[in-house]
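Exercise (ungraded).
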Amino acid sequence: MATTRMQGALALVTGAGSGIGRATAVRFAAEGARVACVDRAAAAADETAAAIKAGGGEAFGLGADVADEAACARMVAATVERFGGLTTLVNSAGVGPQREMSPSEEFRRIVEINLTGTWLVSQAARTALAASGRGSVTNLASIYGLVGSSRSPGYAGSKGGVVNLTRQLAAEWAPAVRVNCVCPGHIDTPLTATLMADAAWRATMITRYPLARFGRVDDIAAAILYLASDEASFVTGAALPVDGGYTAV
Ligand SMILES: NC(=O)c1ccc[n+]([C@@H]2O[C@H](COP(=O)([O-])OP(=O)(O)OC[C@H]3O[C@@H](n4cnc5c(N)ncnc54)[C@H](O)[C@@H]3O)[C@@H](O)[C@H]2O)c1
């Protein structure tokens, strides 16, 4: 059922070609937002935009790499040109552990996309968000931005950076722009497909979840919707765990 919690919102969602970003873009559109769907995978971004349009919403797809500063400027310019402004940014583009790389290469690559990419897009969007009078940024951190991971220093380092970058920008950009992040537990998306296919991993990991399940993309899209919408107009600098209780125990 379509509602109007994002009526008049002009949104840019990175990583919109898959997983949490796609679910967020679709949910935003269902709530009345116009949505720029950005992803390094251009065809996937176009697919999300096409799904939104098929449902009666307004969207366009754009292929761009968040680690490329010039591309960040272009994605914001394209959104402003198309929609006449920008009210809402969601930084969902991100990568998990890159096992084919050496530990040092992996660390640099993950930080470049997950942390530096979040900064580059946010910086490019700041002026337009501030000009809108209702600007918000919602970043994708992780439970591994709050506690350590047994698997990837680069992933945990990048997400811990996203949590404190969120606080920094919230302080620096107030009152014009609100900046928050969500810290999801394990969500069933292509990013976690290898883990989710591993029965032994699932059996062990699920014991760490008080709510006794892994997450769904819609669990995260709902939290992002709240933080991005005007309902959260007094919320900035928050790091909201959406993790079935993982970080509570
Ligand atoms: N799935 C989880 O369990 C989980 C948990 C906590 C946090 N997160 C975070 O949520 C975000 C979304 O994850 P997801 O599970 O939806 O992953 P996903 O792999 O399904 O989607 C990520 C999307 O980001 C895009 N992308 C990757 N690098 C990019 C770049 N440099 N420029 C532009 N686009 C790029 C990919 O093409 C992909 O479409 C990520 O930041 C991830 O770290 C995911």
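Further reading is listed at the end of the chapter. For now, observe: The chain is about 45% helix and 15% strand. The pocket of nicotinamide-adenine-dinucleotide is lined by residues 14-15, 17-21, 39-41, 44, 65-67, 92-95, 113-114, 117, 140, 142, 184, 186-187, 189-192 (CB under 6 Å).
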